[in-house]
Design a protein that fits this description.
This protein is mostly beta strands. The chain folds into 3 domains: 2-151, Immunoglobulin-like; 172-209; 216-354, no CATH class. It is 7% helix and 44% strand. The protein has helices at 2-22, 171-174; strands at 38-44, 46-54, 60-68, 74-77, 82-85, 100-106, 108-112, 118-120, 133-138, 145-151, 177-184, 187-194, 197-204, 212-215, 217-218, 228-230, 233-238, 241-245, 250-253, 262-268, 273-277, 280-284, 291-292, 305-313, 320-328, 334-342, 352-354. The strands form 7 sheets. The protein has a 6-stranded mixed sheet with strand order 4-5-10-9-7-8, with helices on one face. A 5-stranded mixed sheet has the order 15-19-18-17-16, with no helix packed on it. A 4-stranded antiparallel sheet has the order 11-12-13-14, with no helix packed on it. It starts with a helix and ends in a 5-residue tail after the last strand.
Length: 359
């Protein structure tokens, strides 16, 4: 029965096309009817959205708002015959009654209903997109057709909501001090101190259930909470010298050039490793050759404890990063420094000090 209905719709479209092409006198007989068939432009209309929030007393409440579909472009992939919005609609958007504000095509269009039958598309149709729909465009010649899968994507979760899931308890992890977590090649590397001994616990990011415990060997860093990941290696400091490890387990000293006594690893971007030395800050692209950084204020205002290093890529130029370095100075004052770094150049841009303010 469904096949018969689809055939009837297709036959109806072809009949209408044939009738229209025959209307008129012999003076219009030179009009050419093509075999082109394509959906060329689709724009979502106005949609309703249910937003859930909390009242002042902490109870959940909902309200209805409007989503302007034109802000979420529909992309048409003519090769894969798919139409979809790459930027999903906000969580709670109702897509059970979607009306398109724009829908243009080279040919006549029919779509598959929830009941499984095909019906001619009209600009006033309200369509349920809880699941993908099939749209078929028929050429005006009636000799060709193209069927598209049309999806209207809606977010499943709130992008501003971060939900933490509790994992199984691991007693040994709870007993660690000075912990430092890094991720390399899909594996979590948790450095820590247990009974005065430096240890490494590893687990897969795919299944954080079982942790493997290992001892560190070789030139083990003095402070594993200071270890950073750069260039596929782990970097640390032992006896004021730079040490490195491929796996985080076996450590060895690094033969560096022109690097004074190292106090700590500051941080790393995708292009540079930064260390704090006895006379200033140094950067390197290899970990071997180092260059001293320029500061716009005094050395004693640099952070030496409780340090945090953040890399923020620039939107307008993908080659540049904003580097933020914060912590406490040797005198116990809060300190914040910033630098703009060009990943493609050796240019030694200055580190700028931002005094803390009160008020």
């Amino acid at each position: 029965m469904i096949v018969a209905k689809r055939y009837a719709v297709a036959l109806m479209i072809v009949s209408v096309i044939s009738f229209c092409s025959c209307v008129g006198d012999s003076q219009t007989s030179d009009v050419k009817v093509t075999n082109d068939c394509a959906i060329t432009n689709v724009t979502l209309g106005t949609l309703k959205r249910v937003v859930t929030t909390k009242k002042s007393e902490g109870k959940d409440t909902t309200y209805l708002t409007t989503v302007y579909g034109g802000l979420y472009p529909m992309y048409i992939d003519q090769l894969s015959k798919e139409i979809y919005n790459a930027d999903s609609l906000p969580l709670g958007t109702d897509v059970k009654s979607v009306v398109f504000s724009t829908f243009t095509s080279d040919g006549s269009v029919a779509y598959r209903t929830e009941a499984g039958s095909d019906t001619l598309y009209s600009s006033t149709d309200s369509i349920d997109f809880s699941s993908p729909r099939l749209f078929t465009c028929y050429s005006y010649s009636g000799k060709a057709k193209k069927t598209y899968t049309v999806r209207v994507n809606v977010r499943k979760t709130d992008p501003n909501l971060f939900v933490w899931s509790r994992l199984g308890a691991e007693s040994e992890l709870a007993s660690l001090a000075g912990t430092n977590m890094l991720i390399k090649d899909g594996t979590l590397h948790l450095f820590g101190i247990q009974d005065g001994k430096s240890l490494l616990f590893t687990a897969s990011t795919d299944s954080i259930v079982q942790w493997a415990k290992s001892d560190l060997t070789g030139d083990v860093p003095d402070n594993t909470s200071d270890v950073k990941l750069f260039g596929g290696k782990f970097w640390g400091v032992k006896d004021s010298c730079l040490v490195a490890s491929d796996d985080g387990l076996f450590w060895e000293s690094v033969n560096v050039e022109a690097l004074p006594a190292v106090r700590s690893i500051v941080g790393a971007s995708s292009a540079f490793l930064f260390v704090l030395c006895a006379d200033g800050v140094y950067q390197s692209k290899s970990g071997i050759v180092w260059a001293k950084e320029r500061l716009d204020d005094a050395y004693d205002k640099l952070p030496v404890a409780g340090m945090s290093f953040t890399v923020l890529g620039m939107d307008f130029n993908s080659s540049f990063d904003n580097l933020l370095w914060a912590g406490m100075t040797s005198s116990g004052n809060l300190s914040l420094w910033k630098k703009t770094s060009d990943r493609t150049s050796e240019t030694n841009d200055v580190w700028s000090y931002y005094p803390s303010t009160e008020g």
